[in-house]
Amino acid sequence: MTGMHFWIVGMVGAGAVESLQFYGAARHARRWPWRGRDRPDEARFTPLLLSVVIRLFAGGLLAWAAGMSHQIAGVFGATLTGMAAPLFIQQVAVLVPLEPLALRVDPLVEQAPALPEGGEQDDAR
Questions:
Q1: Residue 47 CA to its chain's centroid (Å)
Q2: Cα–Cα distances in Å, from 98 out to 23, 72, 93, 94, 102?
Q3: Residue 23: is its pLDDT beyond 80?
Q4: First vs last Cα of the chain: how many Å apart?
Q5: pTM for the whole structure
Q6: Structure letter (DSSP) for residue 71
Q7: Nearest partner of 50 among 18, 98, 9, judged by Cα
Q8: CA distance 19 to 11
């Protein structure tokens, strides 16, 4: 398979998950999911469409990356990778902290006691 094949099949897998979620949302709301009761129809359609496009892109990108690095070899692997892409990205985002290293305090490392005003430690302990 070429990189483009991995990309397309990954997008198909992500599209399968998106279509199941759309069906569930439409069935639950008994109308189109973007139609709010108090909002005009256009208010929620664009963000919904954008999120679907981003998820399809992520599914294709992850399947392409896995396929080109020989982590998956065929259509089945690319489809499952595309299906799992949103969950994978969510889990990686949880693991990777967003604050700079300089601001992070490690709870396992004991903090050094503050020095007295003179700047020297008392050795008379």
A1: 16
A2: 34, 30, 9, 9, 12
A3: yes
A4: 71
A5: 0.64
A6: S
A7: 18
A8: 12
